[in-house]
UniProtKB/TrEMBL annotation:
Pfam families: HD_5. The gene is rpfG_1. It comes from the Bacteria. The keyword Signal does not apply. This is Cyclic di-GMP phosphodiesterase response regulator RpfG. The keyword Zinc-finger does not apply.
């Protein structure tokens, strides 16, 4: 696969943000009372306190916000960690809440996964990123098994845009679908695959956003830097006891090709771990169906046709067949 198919990014330093947005779907009035919640008003940079510790959010407030079409509120950047721990403590409640439609629960999880990854990636703390990925991987497998979400639900709920954390969360859900499709049923293995997928582009931390989104041709040095991300990711993670070889190979080998024309090493066929092969397919699928800074996302049928053409060349033919059948059956 070419370097162009996985150009997601971690943004390079940007102006200090005072507030960060959070989806209201993640707010449960019975447990979010410790957060000060702000609403944006007027120009982009103006916020006013909506509800706080001494006047907490109610179910009625949420109803009214939804009726007004408000999907996000804001917290101060200093409260991000408190919000992350609130989410982690309460995510199971959302996922297990059978009164919410499965698609809504999936949307919450997908959003929370993106937010959680963004927060830990941007702090640059690899241990925390691994821990957050393990949590999110477990929740993803839990929800996808419990609610038996079909590929159609997953595909239609997913946001097809260009953002590292959107991409990683999408690759995670798709990996679970494909893993199940090829017959992996053990929850522990599915969780390992989900976590590996969330981490697959962790080596992009530190690569400037401008470079990863550059629409023009890349110089040799620029290409080399981008193509270093599987090696950098592997080097960052390889000494962590909690990660398995298969997960590390998802990080290290997801840009290898079955014909040996991939990177970073150019290994071929069986030399690529099956989970690396699996990650390669869903990685390219998400990259091509999503909007990029330099092109619109392609229609699913075009992308499946591309995968067919790559079947047995760049990508494992058995897994491509399985993925095509999962997606054509349900989408
Ligand atoms: Fe990727
Ligand atoms: Fe990648």
């Amino acid at each position: 696969m070419t370097s162009a198919v996985c150009l997601t990014s971690v943004k390079s330093p940007k102006p200090e943000r005072r507030y960060v947005s959070i989806p209201i779907a993640t707010l449960d009035p019975s447990s979010c009372y410790k957060l000060d919640l702000y609403e944006q008003h007027g120009s982009e940079d103006q916020y006013r306190l909506f509800r706080g510790r001494d006047f907490p959010l109610t179910a009625d407030d949420l109803e009214k916000l939804r009726a007004r079409g408000v999907k996000r509120l804001y917290i101060r950047t200093g409260e991000q960690q408190a919000y992350q721990s609130y989410l982690r403590d309460n995510l199971s409640n959302f996922i297990e809440n059978e009164s919410l439609p499965a698609t809504q629960r999936f949307q919450i999880l997908n959003q929370v996964t993106q937010d959680c990854l963004q927060e830990t990636f941007e702090r640059g703390d690899v241990s925390e990123t691994v821990e957050a990925s393990r949590d999110m991987g477990r929740h993803t497998v839990n929800l996808m098994s419990r609610a038996d979400l079909v590929a159609h639900d997953v595909f239609s709920m997913i946001k097809h845009d260009f953002h590292t954390f959107t991409h990683s969360a999408n690759v995670c859900s798709y990996s679970v679908l494909l893993a199940k499709g090829i017959g992996i049923v053990a929850p522990e293995q599915l969780e390992e695959i989900a976590t590996g997928a969330l981490l697959h582009d962790v080596g992009k931390i530190g690569i400037p956003y401008e470079l990863l989104t550059k629409p023009d041709a890349l110089s040799d040095e620029e290409r080399e830097l981008i193509q270093s991300h599987p090696t950098v990711g592997f080097a960052r993670l390889c000494r962590r006891e909690k990660l398995t070889w298969g997960q590390l190979m998802m990080v290290y080998q997801h840009h290898e090709r079955m014909d040996g024309k991939g990177y970073p090493v150019g290994v071929k066929g069986d030399e690529i771990h099956p989970w690396g092969q699996l990650c390669a397919i869903v990685d390219v699928f998400d990259a091509l169906t999503s909007d990029r800074p330099y092109h619109r996302g392609q229609h699913i049928t075009e992308v499946l046709a591309y995968l067919e053409r790559e079947s047995g060349r760049g990508l494992d033919s058995g897994m491509v067949k399985c993925w095509t059948s999962i997606m054509s059956r349900n989408c």
